[in-house]
Amino acid sequence: MKILAITNLYPSAEFPSHGVFVQEQIKGLCAIGLELRVLFVDRRRNGPMAYYRLHHEVREALAGFEPDVIHVMYGGVMADQIVRHHHVCPVVVTFRGSDLLGENLSGRMRQIISRYGVHCSRRAARNADGVVVVARHLFDALNGAAAVDKVRVIPSGIDLTRFKPMDSRLCKQKLGWNPQSFHVLFASSSGDPVKRPWLAKAAVEQVRRLDCPAEFHFITGIPTTEMPLWLNAGDAVLLTSLHEGSPNIVKESLACGVPVVSVEVGDVAEQIAGLEGCHLARPEPAALAVKLRQVWQRGTRLDCPARCEEFSVLNVALKSKQFYEEIVRESKTSRGFATGRGLSIPTVLPVPVTHGKQIVGRIAGPDQSHLTPSAKE
């Protein structure tokens, strides 16, 4: 099966951490035998008009690749343009958070733009053949735009060969951190008010007043290769966002055995449900500080490998593949699309991100040698 993935989120030389979760998703799909090509719409470089100039690039990609499914990996204007103008094969759209929830703490102009993006997302959902939301609460944010039977909840996955428990003391030593301190990590896009960094800082200040030797670390601009090191060096991950979809930082933390303290946002409650050592708290510094202190006093890591397997990149890929197959079958029946070319395992190395609007090429998947035979199947 061939999938044309269209995304405005993808790592580049300038922004190596931007859209890593999309890259991981694509690797997972390739690892289970799908053939992927990626069309990267570089909005950062080319501005918002890049979405309205997409038609030529999409037509070229379709003609040269002949996919069974187009998967638009983010909503908004981009998804709306693809769904409305390209009908040669079924289209799936994934919604991740802000594309359905807006950007409610940004400046006035950005709020207006994001509201238009939400409008476009719902229109895209209405006309798409399939809709993926990364968390259950985002289904409500569709506001009835998509029929229930064409929506699936499929979170972003993580690579468990990278995110796994490591020696915390050794990781602290490599980063030059005081082994006697309680290290609180806070993941935030630089300057993103939705993450509410002021609340996280206030919570850590408060927990220091409770005789906890806390140190606060922003995880911003850290190379993706170093993220497992940072997480394993940490003693807790703090999340204070106003809204989220399905934050990967929580899954990555659990996979590394690091306790999570969070406000109730996105699907965090589902991710940490029943895990001793993880806590939800009211979005107030004092409440968050109490939970952080409890993590410090407990002083042990998490042990939840079964929970982590649920959101491995390969399990997520299998769910996506099943959805593609359902959509292709339905399209053959109801609309007569010419699809179904069998499975093809890509063998070409990952293509680099080039300047301009797109990268088009086959993407190799991650090594599967760590999987059991049943997991590979």
Describe the protein's architecture and organization.
With about 375 residues, the protein is α/β, with parallel strands linked by helices. It has 2 domains: about 1-155 and about 310-375, Glycogen Phosphorylase B (Rossmann fold, 3-Layer(aba) Sandwich); about 170-310, Glycogen Phosphorylase B (Rossmann fold, 3-Layer(aba) Sandwich), CATH 3.40.50. Helices cover about 40% and strands about 15% of the residues. The protein contains 16 helices and 11 strands. The chain has helices at about 20-30, 45, 55-65, 75-85, 100, 110-125, 135-140, 170-175, 195-210, 225-235, 250-255, 270, 285-300, 305-310, 315-335, 375; strands spanning about 1-5, 35-40, 70, 90-95, 130-135, 150-155, 180-185, 215-220, 235-240, 260-265, 280. The strands form 2 sheets. The protein has a 6-stranded parallel sheet, with helices on both faces. Strand 7, helix 9 (about 195-210) and strand 8 form a beta-alpha-beta unit. Mean pLDDT is about 85; it is low at about 335-375.
Question: Concise description?
Answer:
With 377 residues, this protein is of the alpha/beta class. The protein is built from 16 helices and eleven strands.
Keywords:
about 375 residues; alpha/beta; Rossmann fold; 2 domains; 6-stranded parallel beta sheet; 5-stranded parallel beta sheet; 16 helices; about 40% helix; about 15% strand; disordered C terminus
Helix content: 40-55%
Going by CATH, what is the homologous superfamily of the largest domain? Glycogen Phosphorylase B
Helix/strand-derived class? alpha/beta
So, CATH architecture of the largest domain?
A: 3-Layer(aba) Sandwich
DSSP summary: helix tally: 16
CATH class of the largest domain: Alpha Beta
Biggest sheet details: 6 strands, parallel
Low-confidence stretches: 337-377
Radius of gyration: 21 Å
CATH overall fold name of the largest domain: Rossmann fold
Write out the strand line-up for the largest beta sheet, numbering strands in chain order.
2-1-3-4-5-6
Distance between the termini: 16 Å
Number of domains as seen in the coordinates: 2
Order of helices and strands: EHEHHEHEHHEHEHEHEHEHEHEHHHH
For the residues shown, what is the average pLDDT? 86
> Strand portion, in percent?
5-15%
